[in-house]
């Protein structure tokens, strides 16, 4: 049977275009409306049942289900975790495209790459392709709404819509780089986590915050890697580490297509702000929290042409991988070293010669 199948398929694969295979491949280098992304998520789970699980963890203001893909290999040991969300800002279409690419890459890589296999055994990846679903769908509605940024909840007195979800988290909420006017693009909402989308992340991540080594939130544009904090008067306790890891990621990005990404806190390289999810995550003691501002640097802005999806994703993948690998190795190589040291001590204690064990 295997041979028959192989015999039939090899010529088909060798003759592209002669016959179309039964299911159209997902095109990772196009922007997709929400329905397509949801279908893709379901397909990922079907195609990789042992590795991918859809987890529903909240509702949007308009009652749409917020879901993530949990991706990891089975392990007896308690696992650590990596967070990645895309599409918290509706108009930043390259971000959801990146989350889809990232998922595809790690699912392809682990089969042949022992390092990725180890990372997926020690850690689960929690990837939300579109967090602000209502806003994303609104940005797809027509040309006049293409640049919508916020969610779609109505303001306190009606007549205006939308809270900037990346100003709504409980991190120095409402203090700097925000507006209390609901018609503003940086309206921070009625109070900290007043919005269901910000609540979903807060409760999901907050309920297992000690598991998360890394929190990556993906935006565009500007070619920046932002570290906490957005408030100019607070400095992350591991600021030096964040900057070093961020610079390593920027170098990894640069090596792919020569794009310069600038690393720094938001007040240092962009503008001061408060209530961001990145700052909130760092305040929960998640050590490595970064905002990615993907391409470009202003030529097309939010309307990045589709022919730049592939290079943007390729370079950002290597940047993200640098951070994730650092987070992994810091935790797991350390643990392995500690285990080895313990074994060494035990061997010495029972009087076994270690001379030939190195
Ligand atoms: C969402 O669902 C709740 C509970 O069913 C309902 O009360 C509310 O009106 C719905 N909101 C919208 C915007 O449809
Ligand atoms: C930061 O601290 C200075 C000095 O105390 C103060 O004047 C300033 O208002 C603070 N900045 C913010 C954004 O709170
Ligand atoms: C990238 O940054 C480096 C160092 O800051 C600079 O020398 C180089 O000109 C930059 N390249 C581009 C394309 O902007
Ligand atoms: C933006 O990128 C383009 C192409 O890489 C470069 O020519 C230009 O100088 C950059 N502009 C800024 C403001 O960095
Ligand atoms: Zn953004």
Description:
Helix 3 packs across helix 10 and helix 7 (239-257) crosses helix 10. A hairpin with a 5-residue loop joins strand 1 (52-59) and strand 2. The chain has one domain (38-353): Zn peptidases (Aminopeptidase), CATH 3.40.630. Helices cover 39% and strands 15% of the residues. The protein has helices at residues 2-14, 34-47, 94-109, 114-122, 133-139, 196-206, 239-257, 266-269, 277-283, 309-349; strands spanning 52-59, 65-71, 80-86, 123-128, 212-220, 224-227, 262-265, 288-294. With 358 residues, it is α/β, with parallel strands linked by helices. Zinc ion (ZN) is lined by residues 89, 92, 219.
Strand content: 5-15%
Radius of gyration of CA atoms, rounded to a whole number: 22 Å
Q: From N to C, what is the helix and strand string?
A: HHEEEHHEHHEEHEHHEH
**Ligand inventory:** 2-acetamido-2-deoxy-beta-D-glucopyranose, zinc ion
CATH topology type:
Aminopeptidase
Shape: globular
Class from helix and strand fractions: alpha/beta
Total strands? 8
Instruction: Work out the count of structural domains.
Output: 1
CATH class: Alpha Beta
Main beta-sheet annotation: 8 strands, mixed
For the record, give the distance between the C-alpha atoms at the N and C termini, rounded to a whole number.
49 Å
Low-confidence runs (pLDDT<50, min 5 residues)?
1-18, 347-358
Oligomer: single chain
